[in-house]
Amino acid sequence: MTNELSSPAIHRRAFLKYGAAATAAVGAGTWSPFVIAADERALVVAINSAPKFLNPNYLFDGACYYVTSNLFSKLVDYMADGSVAGDLAERWEVSEDALTYTFHLHKGVKWTDGRPVTAKDVVWTIKSIQAEKGYGNAALAGIVDVAAVDDHTVCIVLAERNSSFLAQMAQRYGYVILPAHIYEGTDPRANPANLKPVGSGPYVLTSFGPGDHIQLDVNPDYFRGAPQVKRIFFKFYPEYSAAVAEIRAGGLDLMLSSPPLSAMRQLQKTEGVSVDIVNSQPELMVWVGFNYRNKILADVRVRRAIAHAINRSQINQIVYGGTNKAAETAYLSTSPVWNSDAKQPGFDIAKANSLLDEAGYPRQNGRTRFKIRYTGFNAATGGAQQIGEVMKQQLAQVGIELTLETFDFGVFAEKILQKRDFDLTWSAGPHGPDPQLFSNFVASKGGRNCMDFSNPEVDRLFVEARQAPDMNVAKQKYQRIQHIVAEELPRLSLIEWRMPMIYSNRFSHYWWQADSDKVPNDCYRLVKPV
Amino acid sequence: MIGYIGSRVFLALPTLVFVVVLNFMLTHLAPGDPAYALAGENATPEYLETIRQEYQLDRPLMAQLSAYLGKIATGDLGFSFSYRQPVLGLILDKVPSTLTLVVAGLILGTVLGTLAGVLAAKRYQTALDATLNVLALLLFSLPIFWLGLLMILVFAIWMGGLPAGGMTSLPPKQGLAYLGDLAIHMVLPTLTVALHTIPTYFRLTRSSVIDALQEDYVVTARAIGLRERTVLFRHCLRNALLPNITVAGMMLGSVFSGALLTEAIFSWPGIGSLMYGAVIQRDLPLVMGIFTVSAICVVIAILLTDITYSLVDPRVRHG
Known about the structure:
The complex is a heterodimer. Chain A is an alpha+beta fold. In chain A, 29% of the residues lie in helices and 22% in strands. In chain A, the strands form four sheets. In chain A, strands 1, 8, 9, 10, 11, 12, 13, 14, 15, 16 and 17 form an eleven-stranded mixed beta sheet that branches. In chain A, strands 4-5-7-6 form a four-stranded antiparallel beta sheet, with helices on one face. A two-stranded antiparallel ribbon of chain A has the order 2-3. In chain A, α9 (300-309) packs antiparallel against α11, α10 (312-320) crosses α12 (384-396) and α15 (456-466) packs antiparallel against α16. Chain B is mainly α. Chain B has a domain at 89-282 and 297-310: MetI-like fold (Orthogonal Bundle), CATH 1.10.3720. Helix content of chain B is 78%, strand content 0%. Chain B has helices at residues 2-29, 34-39, 45-54, 61-73, 87-122, 127-141, 144-158, 175-212, 216-223, 228-240, 242-265, 271-280, 284-312, 315-318. In chain B, α5 crosses α11 and α11 (242-265) crosses α12 (271-280). The two termini of chain B are 12 Å apart. Classes of the chains: A alpha+beta, B mainly alpha. The interface between A and B is large, with 66 and 60 residues. Chain A: Keywords: Signal, Transport. Chain A: It is found in: Periplasm. Chain A: It comes from Microvirga alba. Chain A: Residues 84-446 form the Solute-binding protein family domain. Chain A: GO terms for molecular function: peptide transmembrane transporter activity.
């Protein structure tokens, strides 16, 4: 039998003693050097999910843009202030008939593999987007010819005049100029460079593996000068709680997602963390659409009554803590074509009741006039469910019973966009800066016109605005559209959504803070360590 | 023995085929159009049509099923809609991260659950036994995602110090420092997985040890003057652990699913995070691939459990 007292095994007391010491040693490490501490030159950015590829030209991936806006250049690009500026294009000329655009490219621009960026790359990129019929093809449909005049000049010919052409080429997602020498002769959707890009942007990809982050390092040959922040990490947080904890602990510098209001309030009080509420880009409007196939909602008096019954300022206070703006018009108030006179019906319970009585839905003995469904989806802006809850209370005051349903986008799209299985639908989508984007929602053939609203005058005005010789002429058309939409009310704008930018005070000069006319959104070229 | 193993493998195959078919039907019949989920909110009808054709979503369901089964038979799990890469490669990339979490959580949960079970059995019907029972019931009742969020709130936000998400600090460390950093990042997710596992092992061990303590061989061991610790751990626990082996295989599925949720909460870059994105984007081949690989792992674990059990207790293979 083993004599346990003489056993060479560690004695229990010794084990506890050394164990405690070891724990303390590891613990000491935990509380200081092991905690994420951003290198002075490294910026750590939290995004919701890992990008699936790093080429936005052919397929859609919501996370891709955050990274690729630092890896690639575009021909023209939207700056953070909403203006369109040249990127690879140093300048351009438009022919008198506005059908031919001649772009002159910056000279001396290099791909990260050392080869020069030339007009051939621009031509190949545009033709490949058209050939692949990818995500951005619709915006290029009007191009009938694109050719390289010389190494640094590209000529694009349009089938018809398009006042939104530059805005479309500058759109946030897609249209990055790709290296023809890497992609030519291959299947561009399956090219290995989609995961290891060769770009001409301010940064170059260093690592994009199966881990929890992407690393970018500065491109020393960037044609506008190397950025001050030498290294960027994008870290993936599918759930906001971990990101909130990390930014409070100092392990993160910027969150590109908006946590719930309660978490945001906590972050506003956290030392070393700031929260700026900024106009998002693309600018988003939260709105509800009325299904014209529902015979109750097909009556404009009912739609106007619902608009009168919804207190949009209250929604802004309850759901967003007053950080956003209650919408008064169909277009965003930041739009260059905004019509401040084309106001939607304001909050007025008496008027709502009167219109509903007039429409033939009397409220007898305080009973419900009719029931309708509210269908939303879990969007990045958040608030679909909460807005529904508030609207349910507000509409109950005029005798309308609202039942709520919220889905993920896949189910929502099937119910709303395919089957039209809804009464009142919630949505949040880009409404700018290009005013022509609104046609997607209210033109007869608009992809997001789930209401099935159709007004020949609106369709005609969109075409006329697109073909207008200049923006002043186009503006009149867009303003008339806003007036018609406010009258007929196929949809009701609720909130002009603004993005809460949550960041550590270790860096400054983000795109919404300084030089917003020189840098696009999500580009860290001008960011400086504090 | 070989005949026994052969018969178990033979029985496992139809189970796998059934699981694959069930997965296929569930994912395809679930509401939600994959084309819309992939194309995004502002996609044009033309782009949606391109996606439907490219991914053969316009083919009849049975034709898609037979094509999928044909691929599976050759070891091809298909091509991810959203990543545009082979599914198997995507999953294999994430296996080490998930395995690290599952194994660490399972070991910690098994050890703590078993020790707590022995302790409760030894102090049967005392205040300690009652307290441990209540704690186990509480842990068993808590949904794992809630437990994970609670961990973040307490240890990362209120107490501070422990990282709440990810697998490494940034910039990543090298060599031994990397391992230390990984260990620190593993604390909260591993504890979450382990706490989810503990109640099962606790309850099982407690009841087995209570039974074993009544056995004749325990009385004999005490009678010959062995120390109580030796009686308990060397004789009593060894016999009482048999049911734990049976449960280990079954638990793998539960721990695996728990780890997948834990990964999403703690931003752990494993199969769970991969699946989270795949479900949101209706990336059907990837979702099915993850389900199939998970099912294979669980079936293999149960198979190994059966074989281990038959080695430990020969009556099983002759029964």
